[in-house]
């Protein structure tokens, strides 16, 4: 869509999103592939994925980060403790950052913003503290401003994200149970004042019952709610 000014945003099911800028930077957010029942299995990821962004340590957001980073030569970007955890899982290039900070990733400025959610990482050794849950605002040179909320409840400081960064596209969880559902996401969309919403984190598993239609019914008609199939792009 023209709003995206040449940037391609592809939903891979659940919270996994591939961003490809007009200048050729490939960014994969929250890779959940092998155990994601909605992942488009025939989809071929780009050979080079420059950056993998992780919003928090839950398995449905990080479980494929290490193998994708190894295969596609990616640098993993996450909150400090999660970046260190991923380094311990064999990821050779990491950038640890924290809330309110911005890192420049080629032609994309990635700002880490708040989310309200738990964030422990679990493996055979138990549950590990890997920082708090986060979202990302991606400000792309000559491109759009994108917001990926990660897993979160509704919180009123989304208004600050709108005031500071003016995201044009908001990627919001809508499934409920572990995150916001459609009614909370509708108010989030209003606070964010984004013109396009890409619903995430719904339909993957039976408890994630919220639907894009339920969200759209609660929004003004001038807000576009994308109804993508996994593997489709905005
Ligand atoms: Ni989570
Ligand atoms: Mn999740």
Main sheet attributes: strand count, strand direction, barrel closure: 7 strands, mixed
Adjacency order of strands in the biggest sheet: 7-8-11-12-13-14-15
Please work out how many helical segments DSSP would assign.
6
Which residues sit in consecutive blocks of at least 5 with pLDDT less than 50?
Answer: none
Q: Approximately what portion of the residues adopt beta-strand conformation?
A: 25-35%
Protein model, in words:
This protein has 6 helices and 15 strands. It is of the alpha/beta class. It has one domain: 4-Layer Sandwich (Metallo-beta-lactamase, Chain A). α4 links the parallel β12 and β13. The longest helix is centred in the last third of the chain and has 11 residues. The structure holds nickel (II) ion and manganese (II) ion. Manganese (II) ion binds next to α1.
Question: Care to give the gist of this entry?
Answer:
The chain has 234 residues and is of the alpha/beta class.
Task: Give a topology summary.
Blueprint: E1 8-11, E2 17-20, E3 26-29, E4 51-53, H1 59-62, H2 65-72, E5 75-79, H3 80-88, E6 94-97, E7 102-105, E8 108-114, E9 121-123, E10 126-128, E11 134-140, E12 145-148, H4 158-165, E13 169-173, H5 182-192, E14 196-200, H6 212-217, E15 224-225
Parallel strand pairs: 3-4, 4-5, 5-6, 12-13, 13-14, 14-15
Antiparallel strand pairs: 1-2, 2-3, 7-8, 8-11, 9-10, 11-12
């Amino acid at each position: 869509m023209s709003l995206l000014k040449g940037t391609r945003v592809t939903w891979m099911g659940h919270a996994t999103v591939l961003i490809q800028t007009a200048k050729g930077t490939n960014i994969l957010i929250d890779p959940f592939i092998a155990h994601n029942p909605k992942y488009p299995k025939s989809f071929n990821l780009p050979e080079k994925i420059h950056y993998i962004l992780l919003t928090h340590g839950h398995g449905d957001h990080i479980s494929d980060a290490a193998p994708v980073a190894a295969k596609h030569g990616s640098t993993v970007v996450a909150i400090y403790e999660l970046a260190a955890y991923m380094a311990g899982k064999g990821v050779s290039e990491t950038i640890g950052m924290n809330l309110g900070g911005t890192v420049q990733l080629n032609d994309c400025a990635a700002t880490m913003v708040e989310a309200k959610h738990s964030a422990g990482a679990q493996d055979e050794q138990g549950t590990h503290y890997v920082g708090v849950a986060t979202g990302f605002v991606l400000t792309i040179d000559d491109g759009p401003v994108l917001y990926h909320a990660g897993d979160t409840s509704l919180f009123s400081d989304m208004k600050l994200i709108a005031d500071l960064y003016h995201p044009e596209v908001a990627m919001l969880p809508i499934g409920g149970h572990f995150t916001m559902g459609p009614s909370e996401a509708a108010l989030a969309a209003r606070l964010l004042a984004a013109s396009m919403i890409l619903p995430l984190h719904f339909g993957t598993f039976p408890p994630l019952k919220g639907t894009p239609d339920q969200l759209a019914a609660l929004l003004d008609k001038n807000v576009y709610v994308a109804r993508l199939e996994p593997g489709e792009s905005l």
